[in-house]
Write a structure and sequence with these properties.
The structure holds 2 protein chains of 2 kinds.
Chain A (H helix, E strand, L loop, with lengths): L4 E3 L2 E4 L5 E6 L6 E7 L5 E8 L2 E4 L8 E4 L6 E5 L8 E8 L10 E2 L3 E5 L1
Parallel strand pairs in A: 2-11
Antiparallel strand pairs in A: 1-3, 3-8, 4-5, 4-9, 5-6, 7-8, 9-10, 9-11
Chain B lengths: L2 E3 L4 E5 L4 E3 L2 E3 L4 E8 L5 E7 L5 E3 L5 E5 L4 E6 L8 E9 L6 E2 L3 E6 L1
Parallel strand pairs in B: 2-12
Antiparallel strand pairs in B: 1-4, 3-9, 5-6, 5-10, 7-8, 8-9, 10-11, 10-12
Classes of the chains: A mainly beta, B mainly beta.
Chain lengths: 116, 113
């Protein structure tokens, strides 16, 4: 059973460009979470999605960031007009059932975004 | 609001020696507690979690942690480390019934041959 997959693993963008980060959850998982890890900091929750629904986006910056989890295909985290402060590791996690923390979240390897 | 503190950013230890990685949290409500490990260039892997019941929790790879409510701590221990334990270790907390985790800044464990 393949784990959570994220691509690309590394992404370089210039200021003002768009970044698209993709996450394919584990087979059978319908709950996806995105976290961001800034340098020298712990992971911080951004958004929690189920298929076609955003359940909790309390950790998402108000501007330039959006996320989706369509009926078919991977979850996408989109960052428009990137700035240097967006440089970070972005981790996706998935869980099989209800989205409470009793359910183990399985993490992908992350996407390292570097904004020049 | 919740927070997690991992006081030790780096812990070097000799092979076969015991190790303790410290984690303290603050929360005004009941919490679940987790330890994750991250090997180089890999995603986080769950080591163990405390939801309820016995305060001593055993996880994978010989690790265990003890929940101490009065001291708001959840320290991770292993009696004898191996080279393969070299990795970054993250403590995390979640409100019971919540859907997101709050992570500490991580402790880098380096096992010295």
């Amino acid at each position: 059973n393949a784990g959570v997959m994220q691509n690309p693993r590394h992404l370089v963008r210039r200021r003002g460009q768009e970044a698209r980060l993709r996450c394919s959850p584990m087979k059978g998982h319908s709950h996806v979470y995105w976290y961001r890890q800034l340098p020298e900091e712990g992971l911080k929750f951004m958004v929690y999605l189920q298929k076609e629904n955003i359940i909790d986006e309390s950790g998402m910056p108000k501007e330039r960031f959006s996320a989706e989890f369509p009926k078919e295909g991977p979850s996408i985290l989109r960052i428009q007009q990137v700035v240097r402060g967006d440089s970070a590791a972005y981790f996706c996690a998935s869980s099989p059932r209800q989205g409470t923390s009793e359910e183990t979240q399985y993490f992908g390897p992350g996407t390292r975004l570097l904004v020049l | 609001a919740q927070s997690v503190t991992q006081l030790d950013s780096q812990v070097p230890v000799f092979e076969e020696a015991p190790v303790e990685l410290r984690c303290n949290y603050s929360s005004s409500v009941s919490v679940y507690l987790f330890w994750y490990v991250q090997y180089p260039n890999q995603g986080l892997q769950l080591l163990l979690k405390y939801l309820s019941g016995s305060t001593l929790v055993k996880g994978i790879n010989g690790f265990e942690a003890e929940f101490n409510k009065s001291q708001t701590s959840f320290h991770l221990r292993k009696p004898s480390v191996h080279i393969s334990d070299t990795a970054e270790y993250f403590c995390a907390v979640s409100e019971t019934g919540a859907n997101n985790l709050f992570f500490g800044t991580g402790t880098r464990l380096t096992v010295i041959p």
